[in-house]
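BUG: 3D viewer hangs when loading the predicted structure for this chain

Environment: internal workstation, default settings.
Expected: structure renders.
Actual: progress bar stalls at 90%.

Input used:
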Amino acid sequence: MSTSDNLRGHFLIAMPGLNDPNFDHTVTYLLEHNSGGAFGLIVNRPIDLDMGDILSQLNIASFNPEFNARPVMVGGPVQPERGFVLHRTDADESAQWANTARFDDGISITTSPDILAALAEGSGPADMLFILGYAGWDAGQLEHELSENAWLSVAATPEILFDVPLQDRWDASTRLLGIDPMAISPDAGHA
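Structure tokens produced before the viewer hung:
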């Protein structure tokens, strides 16, 4: 795989014909894509938990009802008990979380609970998603699925990740390609 084929920092948009209930109508943000495989987080599928539930399970006190009501996302079928905080890279570099990976597009992912404690106290990144589980592909698997028209890909934008309502992210991501989402057929075709 050449570097021009690297889809890190892209959205994978599930095509309507993708025959996997784990990815039906999803938008997945790719955090890693190389010759060894790919790793990403679904960013438009809330589950029946909110941040208050997560903080309570971790014995973290929060007195911010607005933050407590924020939805929790399912990031994919792999390790559904593992939590990720996807957030904008903090402009204030003094905010150091114990386990954060920063990406070139101004997005970071943190997996340590210290960020949750900060968020519960009202500090930490304002733009964030809490995600349980992830999506992963073995070497060559994603490339094969792309060749089978299971996914569309487009460069991700922080606006879709953090500003667009969850239920509108699939349509908004598709529109980044200049495609009307209503025009997408559930049947994939090959020329």
